[in-house]
Write a structure and sequence with these properties.
The complex is a heterodimer of chains A (59) and B (553). By secondary structure, chain A is mostly helical. Chain A has three helices and no strands. Chain A is 83% helix and 0% strand. Helix content of chain B is 70%, strand content 1%. Classes of the chains: A mainly alpha (59), B mainly alpha (553). Chains A and B meet through helix 2 and helix 3 of A and helix 1, helix 9 and helix 17 of B.
């Protein structure tokens, strides 16, 4: 686990996933909905998950 | 531009992550080589992305968007003429010498190939250049955020410098490289939404072409006459000045970018680094040039419905530098705005970190170890490396305040860098491919080239600049002047180096094995599938680049 978390793919994936979550919370909790925000946050989350999966497959 | 709590939260998350990267890398630092040169352990995908990211500072990103607005699609020349060919050349022909010679830096290669004085000239000029560039990045960051966000100038300087200092002090070059890769994804993913929504607003590329003057949407068609295109360039000065001298002079000899290839795991990866990097580099105009072209298109009467305008300077002229920040402010809602601002911040800070780590390596190996304190323990040089990291950041802070006090310092420094960089590629070209080149030829040729650059600038005037000796000849644009200065400095260096080499004694051929093309075994490029080999990828990239130039002719 420690080894995976130090891989750059995982770090990048975690960063974008966290950013996506913040954006989703902002969209729904702060009523700051816009299509651009939704699509962007979704893209960031997908990218983040893919990177984190990539770090596992490279172990 | 007003940020919301979500935006600030995203910025803070970025700060936490970059420091965390430094703390993770710290555990792997055991030697000065780990700290200063990553001990050649970095995977290909990281070295490739760091290679272009090292060049993707905020001044590049903001500057290219500004150029896109000012000059139109011709701005792609900085990529499709001024980068790809040089990057391919570096990977195919020069990396075998940089990597194979075991040199830890570009100046060290010059020492191995030529002599101490040539190394010293390059090391000192490079060290001064990079640490001042770092300071100018810091000044530009603080100035930008003071203007667009109302942040305190001093606080921006101290926070940005402090965070860069922490993660470079902890993890050295590897930490800087890892954060450059994070920065790359931030810029691409952070700015892509802007391109998509702004292009939609403008009605697509067809509408843009319809509403802009033809010379703003053609890259080559109007370059037969310098008066016919917005850059004020003739295609000959572009091809030789930018496409050859400046492009190869930067991509093939600047240690800041070459360092990212030199830390690859193997010779094959080192050669592939600039070539793989050329793929995203080729596509970068979509992210950094197209927004500028869209911005100027949105100013046209038929497309003004979007409500976007490029801000004006106090004299009523368009403030092209503010094109990207103003587009982000116009199109991005909160949350995404935080991502956009973080992307800008990341590019400023990574530019600073890249310069500091390159400065650190050159100072420690090529100045401190080479001339002052030799043959000490490795631990000593590791400690020195860490100390120089701090010193480099402090000098950067001082330079930032100097730039604040003297408006023209950036222009002055860029001018001097141009004088020094312009002739450099001639030295490397002759050194790597002509065994007869001597140390005296290289050193005096470099000096002659630099003097040639200064004289050319002093005798020509463009847009009110230059002509400080005598305004002998007027050139239409400042960019054209820069390309001509570079071309002449290169030619002067090239000829001087050859002439002086022919009348001075070269090194023994045994000393030049691994350093000169004719005395070095060709690196093997077989094994693996065709798309994993250097030469086929390079050929494909060149063909695609030529096709892109034709499409946007």
């Amino acid at each position: 686990m420690e080894n995976k978390m130090t891989r750059l793919e995982f770090v990048i994936g975690a960063f974008f996933s966290i950013v996506a979550v913040i954006m989703f919370i902002n969209i729904f909790a702060a009523s700051a909905y816009s299509r651009l925000s939704m699509y962007s946050a979704s893209s960031f989350l997908v990218f983040g998950i893919i990177m984190m999966i990539a770090s596992r497959s490279n172990d | 531009m007003k940020l919301q709590p979500a935006d600030y939260f995203i910025i803070c998350i970025y700060f936490v992550f970059v420091i965390a990267v430094g703390m993770i890398i710290k555990k792997k630092i055991r030697s000065s080589n780990d700290f200063l040169a990553s001990s050649r352990t970095i995977p290909l995908w990281i070295t490739s992305l760091a290679f272009i990211s090292a060049n993707l500072g905020a001044q590049e990103v903001i500057g290219m968007v500004a150029s896109g607005a000012k000059y139109g699609i011709m701005t792609v020349h900085f990529y499709w003429v001024g980068a790809i060919f040089a990057m391919v050349f570096l990977g195919l022909f020069m990396m075998p010498f940089y990597y194979g010679s075991r040199a830890r830096s570009v100046p060290e290669y010059l020492f191995l190939r030529f002599d101490e004085k040539t190394r010293a000239l390059n090391a000192v000029s490079f060290a001064v250049m990079t640490v001042f560039s770092s300071g100018i990045s810091l000044y530009a960051l603080a100035k930008m955020f003071e203007i667009i966000l109302g942040w305190n100038f001093d606080a921006s300087i101290l926070v940005a410098a402090g965070i860069v200092m922490i993660y470079t002090f902890l993890g050295g070059l590897t930490s800087a490289v890892y954060n450059e890769v994070l920065q790359f994804f931030l810029i691409v993913l952070g700015l892509s939404p802007l391109v998509i929504v702004a292009l939609q607003d403008a009605g697509g590329w067809a509408a843009i072409r319809q509403n802009l003057a033809p010379n703003m949407t053609h890259a080559w068609k109007y370059m037969g006459d310098a008066n016919a295109n917005p850059m004020g360039l003739h295609f000959t000065s572009l091809i030789f000045g930018l496409g050859f001298v400046m492009s190869f002079g930067y991509w093939c000899t600047d240690f800041l970018v070459v360092q990212r290839a030199m830390i690859a795991k193997s010779m094959r990866d080192a050669r592939r680094t600039p070539i793989v990097a050329a793929v995203p580099k080729m596509l970068m105009p979509l992210i950094v040039v197209l927004p500028g072209v869209i911005a100027i298109a949105l100013m046209q009467p038929a497309l003004q419905g979007s409500g976007y305008t490029i801000p004006l300077e106090s004299n009523g002229q368009l403030n092209y530098t503010m094109t990207l920040p103003s587009m982000i402010a116009h199109y991005y809602p909160s949350g995404l705005l935080g991502v956009g601002i973080t992307a800008l911040m990341a590019s400023f800070m990574s530019g600073m970190a890249g310069n500091v780590t390159a400065f650190n390596a050159v100072f420690t190996y090529d100045i401190y170890q080479a001339y002052f304190v030799k043959k000490r323990s490795d631990r000593h040089y590791l400690v020195v490396g860490k100390f120089i990291t701090v010193a480099g950041i402090l000098i950067s802070i001082a330079t930032a305040y100097l730039a604040k006090g003297f408006n023209n310092i950036n222009d002055f420094l860029q001018l001097v860098f141009g004088f020094v960089n312009g002739p450099l590629f001639a030295t490397f070209l002759l050194g790597m491919f002509w065994k007869r080149t001597t140390g005296h030829g290289a050193f005096w040729g470099l000096l002659a080239g630099t003097i040639g650059a200064a004289l050319t600038h002093g005798l020509t005037v463009a847009e009110g600049k230059g002509g400080w000796i005598y305004p002998f000849y007027e050139i239409k644009s400042g960019m054209g002047q820069a390309f001509i200065v570079a071309a002449i400095s290169w030619i002067v260096n090239f000829i001087s180096t050859i002439v002086i080499s022919l009348v001075t004694r070269p090194k023994n051929e045994n000393e030049l094995k691994g350093l000169v093309y004719s005395l070095t075994a060709r690196p093997r490029d077989d094994g693996g599938k065709w798309y994993q080999r250097v030469t086929p990828i390079a050929v494909i990239l060149i063909v695609i680049t030529i096709i892109l130039n034709i499409i946007f002719f």
